[in-house]
Amino acid sequence: MLPVSPDDLRTAFGLGVAGNFAGHLEQAGEAGDFVGVTAATPDAPKGIFPFWAPGADTFLGDFPLSSDTVALPASDEPLDLQIEPEVGLLCRATYAADGTVERVAPLAVGAFNDCSIRRPGARKISEKKNWGSASKGVAAGFLAAEDLSPDGPTATLRLASFLRRDGATHAYGVDSPVVGYSYYGTTLLEWLVDRLNHQGGADDTPLEDVGALLRDAGRPETLLIGIGATRYTPYGASTYLEPGDEAVVVVYDERGTSPDDVEHAVAEGREGDLEDASVLVQRVVAAG
Predict the structure, then answer these.
(1) Exposed, middle or buried: residue 254 (CB in 10 Å: 0-12, 13-18, 19+)?
(2) How far apart are CA 55 and CA 61, in angstroms?
(3) C-alpha dihedral over 100, 106, 112, 117, to 10 degrees?
(4) 116: closest CA among 198, 196, 29, 1?
């Protein structure tokens, strides 16, 4: 297990992948945002977006990562927030002489909560992603993984998520194999390099020139990438976060742990005892 401290990621760059798990955008009510986006293939992700850019003089410069808290945003009107259970990919970026991204090399994978505001009319994806401190969740321990090939060390990993509320535990995302992502392994890594070098921003899409933000941040060596959220269970699709909730995301190895084992452990508060698992538990707190 690789220890991961949010403070250690203050010099990293944070980005996410949109539309990398079939059906998620439709459930989240965001598929229409991408009408003007042409993907490489029908099953390809829609693009990448930033959630943390060190040194930025916009909201993207507000450090959003926490390993134990989701802080609801201050607002005069109700806001609908959902867990976005994802595999977080810790990577090392290398750059060519001209400053473009040459390679994205995986280091470790772990539980990540790309918590999002369902904000109709938002111009860019990032406007739903970072509202300040404790907007995002990252597990305190990741599983070392320098090989994302289909038969490599991540081939038997699964991703599950739960919401604990009023003493009850509910499955929030559909327990899914990590290799079930639309783009994974070498395909994902090469696509990320291409998008960091070539994705532009346009007024008619929710995407931005993430590569330019990466350059403005000084071309950080470390990247934290949320590679996409799973589909929701019926409960997860219709339930928004409230103060007092606990959001739980687990990346685990199915060779020694079954989905039932994970669900029972979370229901009993024993998720920390799971072996070969990256576990993120965040308490939801009110703004301020």
Answers:
(1) middle
(2) 6
(3) 20
(4) 29
Could you read off the pLDDT tens digit of each residue along the chain, which spans 288 residues?
A: 999 999 999 999 999 999 898 544 555 555 455 555 566 666 789 999 999 999 999 999 999 999 999 999 988 777 899 999 999 999 999 999 999 999 999 999 999 999 999 886 688 999 999 999 999 999 999 999 999 998 899 999 999 999 999 999 999 999 999 999 999 999 999 999 999 999 987 777 889 999 999 999 999 999 999 999 999 999 999 999 999 999 999 999 999 999 999 999 999 999 999 999 999 999 999 987
* Structural domains of the chain, ranges and CATH numbers in brackets: 2-285 (3.90.850.10)
Structure tokens at 48: 């990448």
Q: Which amino acid is at 253?
A: D
State the Cα–Cα distance between residues 146 and 7, nearest whole angstrom.
Answer: 23
